[in-house]
Specification:
The complex is a heterodimer of chains A (453) and B (334). With 453 residues, chain A is mostly helical. Helices cover 69% and strands 6% of the residues of chain A. Chain A has 2 domains: 244 residues, no CATH class; 166 residues, no CATH class. Chain A has 13 helices and 6 strands. In chain A, the strands form 3 sheets. A two-stranded antiparallel sheet of chain A has the order 1-2. In chain A, strands 3-4 form a two-stranded antiparallel ribbon. In chain A, strands 5-6 form a two-stranded antiparallel ribbon. In chain A, α6 packs antiparallel against α7 and α8 packs across α10. Chain B has one domain. Chain B has 14 helices and 2 strands. The mean pLDDT of chain B is 84. Classes of the chains: A mainly alpha (453), B mainly alpha (334). Chains A and B meet through α2, α3, β2 and α13 of A and α3, α4, α5 and α14 of B.
Chain lengths: 453, 334
């Protein structure tokens, strides 16, 4: 098979697997800090129990993120040498700063955060949590800056076919960067809130009514209920930014073929690129014009303006719909759950049953969103600078196919093991309830008292 | 050679990359080595062995990300050439590192019945990653020649590097453990040391004979005289350390860190030898560090950050090691 498409699938598989874990650790670090600060403020040991349940999920997710991230740093060289050869002067410093300012910080203080509660003062332990959470966020900042620069490059000039940096401020804060960063940080927040809410709902269904379960459940549900409307707004703003800078991506997201006013919002369709039309279309008249231009006569770009230079329509169109659909479902579920928790101080069983599969809704939406924006960048690797086909390395298709197969098998097995451990940890916490042993009361003296014991 | 920035920057980055590789090999060397020694340890010992590296392995592996990252950002042409030539061993290294890294966490969190499976995966991941690194070193030393002879030599270096890592792992255990496990670690060190020495001799002999250019760098007067401390010191350290294994552990646990420091010194000497052999090439006999380097302005902005951040990284890494200093006890989330 063609090494280009195989390398693309391989990179897609690697980065899809990778993003699942940063999507959790970026926000979970801050949630852990919240648990820790509540414990510091109230002295309620249930907060510390919640911390120790979720720090295990953090540790596991962090390890998965690190090992899959190492794979990414090799992939540039093994499969896409043309990428660094062309834009290495821009991508290099951004990646280097990610490693220097984020990776070491996270890795060094993770040990103290996970295993150091009894070895350092409470203040240092809280500081370690801050540094780890901060490290994950700084890491997101740099990598989103690089990804956004590939979408909407700025602040550089081409000399002899190689990109050279001119203005680092413009490179880092390129046109789509603030929007994408906010969108991704919120996505991480939602992924974690639904993860916590979903696994707490599972504990609830197993009869766990412990304080630490309630605290985690409320944290998850209320955070989700607050973040989802902000995310819908931020996503809309991000879309308008894309309309300005990458109109062909918007055209593919809306499956709109002809530029013009009064463009309908296509709810369902089977985009047919050969015939350049939508089959089985179900649409709201003028909808896309209203959403994108805030007027029914607003002009929306069409794919036919970009012959041979627009992304494949089908995956972009459907990726976008899956993301938005999941978002709407998140809104309904989190607001209903918030209502019942606030007013009734209980959770109806059907809602709890629905929240369990919603545990991974953040993953679904995040992946669908990334597929939309990354496939939507094609055929370019760096918009207007480097085509994906020109960056692929001289590796035999059979090599790429073999390694791809092994990666896929490995990733499926690891995902099964990961989800299995999450359920196992939740059920174990449900069984122990408030009787789970608190750290420090077992054998050695604590460097600080575990209040309430 | 003139000393302007376009000349100096690639040189500085080659030095930084070398430093990152050396630190990685020493630090993750003992992690991987302990993974290899897992196969020879009892269940209860395995928990202690994990506790001896649990808080550190993550930061240790980050040095590999920095080394590969520096290769990627400072010498993009070399990154592509080397990693496409080593496609399959690099892939195996990654699979090994993935398995090793996740096994750390899974073995502590799965239901008790499944722990054995993840212990085996931990061993498997460590040995695969070590062998892959050794193989890559062997093939690189021969100038990325992937003929049948090159592969055989790569396999030999793979075994010896795995043995060297096992020696590092054993030396770290001598420092971090006590009692029966510590005595066992001394015996492991003695065996692994022999294989590690063999590997070092093999690489040292093969490098000059694989390339006439490298031969000329070593076997000309008076360079031979200046360079002679490298092999002589390494050999003395090996012999001295091997003799020490008959006296360790000492009463009061004196010199518990000595084997580890000696091995680190041996690694550093070997690394200095390799650096001398290959300088100024980053892809042996094909690309020099100046031909493969990024634009000076990009290197300068990375260097500015590195100069500020690297000392901070080293400082807090030492702090993390100090927090978890002393003999390893059971590792719990507290």
């Amino acid at each position: 098979m063609d090494p280009l498409i195989l390398s693309r699938i391989q990179f897609g598989a690697n980065i899809s697997f990778h993003i699942l874990f940063p999507a959790i650790t970026i926000a979970l670090g801050w949630v852990l800090l919240f648990f820790k600060l509540r414990y510091n403020a109230t002295g309620d040991s249930a907060w510390m129990r919640a911390y120790f349940t979720w720090v295990k999920v953090f540790a596991l997710s962090f390890a998965m993120g690190v090992v899959s991230g190492v794979t990414m740093s090799f992939q540039f060289g093994t499969n896409w040498p043309g990428y660094m050869e062309t834009v290495g002067n821009i991508a290099g410093p951004l990646l280097a700063y990610e490693i220097l300012t984020a990776f070491f910080l996270e890795a060094a203080f993770l040990g103290i955060m996970l295993f150091g509660f009894r070895r350092v003062s409470n203040r240092i332990h809280t500081l370690a949590t801050v540094l780890v959470a901060g490290g994950t966020t700084v890491s997101a900042f740099w990598i989103i800056a690089l990804n956004s620069w590939m979408q909407t490059p700025a602040g550089f000039e081409m000399r002899d076919g190689v990109a050279h940096a001119v203005d680092w401020w413009a490179i880092v804060f390129n046109p789509s960067m603030p929007y994408r960063l906010v969108h991704m940080l919120l996505a991480s927040g939602l992924t974690v809130s639904f993860l916590i809410a979903g696994l707490s709902a599972l504990r609830y269904l197993y009869g766990d009514r412990s304080e630490s379960m309630w605290k985690a459940l409320r944290t998850g549900v209320f955070t989700a209920a607050i973040l989802i409307p902000i995310q819908i707004f931020a996503g809309d703003q991000h879309g308008l930014n894309t309309l300005e800078h990458q109109p062909q991506k918007i055209a593919a997201m809306e499956a709109n073929w002809n530029t013009g006013p009064n463009v309908p919002l296509v709810l369902f369709a089977w985009p047919d690129e050969a015939a350049r039309e939508n089959r089985f279309e179900l649409a709201i008249p003028d909808g896309a014009s209203v959403v994108l231009r805030h007027s029914s006569s607003g002009v929306v770009p069409g794919l036919n303006d970009y012959p041979g230079n627009h992304p494949p329509v089908f995956p972009v169109f459907w990726g976008f719909r899956i993301m938005v659909g999941t978002g709407v479902l998140m809104l309904i579920v989190s607001w209903s759950a918030a209502f019942f928790l606030k007013r009734r101080h209980s959770l109806p069983k059907p809602l709890a049953l629905l929240m369990v599969p919603m545990t991974i809704s953040g993953w679904v939406a995040t992946l669908a969103g990334w597929y939309t924006t990354e496939i939507g960048r094609q055929p370019w690797l760096v918009t207007g600078v480097l085509k994906t086909a020109d960056a692929v390395g001289p590796v035999a298709g059979s090599h790429v196919a073999l390694t791809l197969a092994v990666y896929l098998i490995l990733y499926v097995l690891l995902l099964i093991a990961y989800l299995g451990v999450l359920v196992h940890l939740a059920l174990k916490a449900a069984k122990d309830g408030d009787a789970s042993p608190l750290p420090g009361v077992m054998n050695a003296a604590l460097s600080q008292p575990a209040a309430g014991e | 050679m003139s000393f302007d920035w376009p000349t100096l920057l690639p040189l500085i980055f080659a030095g930084l990359m070398g430093l990152a590789i050396l630190i990685y090999v020493i630090l993750d060397g003992f992690d991987l080595g302990i993974g290899i020694l897992f196969a020879a340890a009892e269940d209860a010992e395995q928990d202690t062995m994990i506790a001896a590296i649990g808080p550190f392995w993550d930061a240790n592996e980050t040095w590999l990300v920095l080394a590969v990252g520096l290769l990627l950002v400072a010498f993009p042409l070399a990154h592509g050439t080397i990693l496409t030539a080593l496609y399959i061993p690099a892939f195996l290294l990654l699979v090994g590192l993935i398995l090793r890294g996740v096994a750390f966490d899974f073995r502590a969190k799965v239901p008790a019945g499944r722990k054995h499976r993840w212990n085996r995966i931990f061993f498997l991941g460590s040995i695969i990653a070590s062998l892959a690194q050794g193989y890559m070193l062997g093939v690189y030393v021969l100038g990325l020649d992937v003929g049948l002879g090159g592969m055989a030599f790569g396999a030999l270096v793979a075994l010896c590097l795995a043995a060297a890592y096992a020696a590092m792992g054993a030396a770290w255990l001598i420092y971090k453990t006590e009692g029966e496990l510590q005595r066992k670690a001394v015996r492991w060190l003695r065996t692994a040391l022999v294989l590690a020495a063999l590997g070092m001799v093999a690489v040292s002999l093969a490098t000059p004979f694989a390339s006439p250019r490298i031969f000329d760098k070593w076997f000309v007067w008076p360079q031979m005289l200046y360079l002679s401390p490298l092999p002589i010191l390494s050999a003395l350290l090996f012999v001295w350390l091997w003799r020490q294994t008959f006296h360790l552990p000492r009463p009061d646990d004196r010199h518990a860190l000595t084997p580890f420091l000696s091995l680190a010194a041996i690694f550093a000497l070997g690394f200095a030898g390799l650096a001398w052999s290959f300088y100024p090439f980053v892809v042996p006999d094909k690309l020099t560090i100046w031909q493969a380097a990024s634009a000076p302005e990009s290197l300068a902005i990375i260097l500015a950050g590195t100069v500020v951040v690297l000392p901070i990284i080293i400082f807090y890494s030492f702090y993390a090691y100090r927090v978890f200093g002393g003999k390893a006890t059971d590792l719990t989330y507290d």
